[in-house]
Amino acid sequence: MSRISIMALRVILSVVLAGTLFVQVGMVPMIAVNEVARPGAPEVPAVALLAYLVLAGIVIEICAVCVWKLATRAARSTVFDPASFKYVSPIIVSVAAGSLATFALAALLAPGEDIAPGMVLLIGGFGILLAGISVIVYVLRQLLIQATRTEAQAAALRTELGGVI
């Protein structure tokens, strides 16, 4: 990857991390305080939505940090190394967990009359999208495994060729 593309990626990841932290630290507590201040106890959908926002923020932060680490490895030309797997696996797990949380949110919102059925369907569709992203990243991880093996085989062949010459 070129230095410009890595720098652009890091700028984008920095903005994403800052925005996510702002939502988690600033917006969620303000919304929670407003919900508690309303007459009556906070409703289950409101609490579930706030918990979902915090969990979604954690998923985004995990993915952003792992992508940052992978970009650093790409800049150093060390991405085709087994050590890269420790940055890909958390992305798969966190996005899959986000998918399950999205399905749980849809299930919590479905029984009431406050949320339109179409909205619950959209949330369920987003859960399917997240599950698909998790599967895509898993497939990319498998490709990284193959590329790592190929890189190791090429290095071994270079060593043998160097010994012959």
TrEMBL record:
It comes from Glutamicibacter protophormiae. Coiled coil: none annotated. Keywords: Membrane, Transmembrane, Transmembrane helix. The keyword Transmembrane applies. This is DUF2975 domain-containing protein. InterPro entries: DUF2975. The keyword Transmembrane applies. It comes from the Bacteria. The chain crosses the membrane at residues 12-32, 44-67, 87-109, 115-140. It holds the Pfam family DUF2975.
